[in-house]
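For the sake of transparency, this paper describes our internal protein records without simplification. Because each token names a local backbone shape, the row as a whole describes the fold. One such record is reproduced below, unchanged from the form in which we store it.
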Amino acid sequence: FCMMQLFSVLNFSPFRFCYVPDLGTDSVVQYTFDSVTGSLSEISIAKTPPGSGPRHMVFHPTLPYCYVLGELQNNIVQFSFDHESGKLTPGRVVSSVPPEVEAATMVYKSLLRMIRPRLGR
């Protein structure tokens, strides 16, 4: 971890996998977690666009996707998630701010949430 610029660690599939967005390498490092020994073993590295600065991520509550906020380029990368292997596969990239907002505007974690639509209302 000494050369990385880590900000957060997210676990998923209760405590089976850990995901670490690394702003310095524009990647999300993926680990398996051994609950007996407490150790992490790297399984894969998922890249985000160069210069994006991945910082926070959230998992979709029901679909096999997660979303990573790139704070340096104001983007969100959608990854597909394999429940068996824990590996992430990058998908589409979208802006996290409307086109009329200044490029210098920063997007914070509090703005990255999964919202479940209410049907039938």
Summary: Confidence is low (pLDDT under 50) at residues 114-121. The longest strand covers residues 39-47.
